[in-house]
Amino acid sequence: MIEMLKLAEETAATQGEFSLVSIDPNTIVFTLINTLIIFLIYFLFLHKPVCKILDERAAAVNKDMDDAQKAKEEADKVKAEYEQRLQESKDEASRIVAEATKKAQQRETEIISAANDEAAQLKKRAEESIEKEKKKAINEIKEEISEMVVMAASKVAEKEISEKDNEKIIDTVLSQIGESD
């Protein structure tokens, strides 16, 4: 570039003036004719292929956008199906938990009922056992009283009883009854 400037200076020095920027009508006309020729060449030879390439590119972009839209719609459809299945799974899980809870409560009721029945049976047997023991004790007491009465009667029969003896025998029998309790 420095060489070009030096060459321009030398040329200007030989012509008498030096200017980096100058307006030359010949250059302007030549530039306009060149631009017109390039535009005509472009319009005649390149315009249709370039437009065709641009149209194909636009069609490809539109096709890609349509494919993307279809893919988005398909993804939305799959998402909706997934969410529906997820909700159905949640509902099924809730139903299973509710059913398990219900069965557990029924089993709890059955166990409590069985325990209450068994407790009632144990209580009934205990009461029956107590009643038997009570009757047995009463029978034993009656036997002892009978024996004492017989003993007292035999003592009375052995002796002639006076009123004092009668009181003494009664006191003795009563004291023996009191000791046996």
Number of helices: 3
- Which structural class is indicated by helix and strand composition? mainly alpha
Whole-angstrom Rg: 66 Å
**Which spans of ≥5 residues are poorly predicted at pLDDT below 50?**
none
The percentage helix is over 70%
Terminal CA distance reads: 145 Å
> How many β strands by DSSP?
0
SSE order, as H and E?
A: HHH
Task: Give the count of structural domains.
Answer: 1
Mean pLDDT: 83
The major pleated sheet works out as: none
User: How much of the polypeptide forms β-strand, as a percent range?
Assistant: under 5%
Based on CA inertia axes, which overall geometry fits?
Answer: rod-shaped
Task: Describe the 3D structure.
The chain is mainly alpha-helical and 181 residues long. The chain has one domain. The protein has 3 helices and no strands. It has helices at 2-15, 25-158, 163-180. α2 (25-158) packs antiparallel against α3 (163-180). It is rod-shaped and about 190 Å long. 0% of the residues are buried. The mean pLDDT is 83.
Summarize the structure.
By secondary structure, the protein is mostly helical. The protein has helices spanning 2-15, 25-158, 163-180.
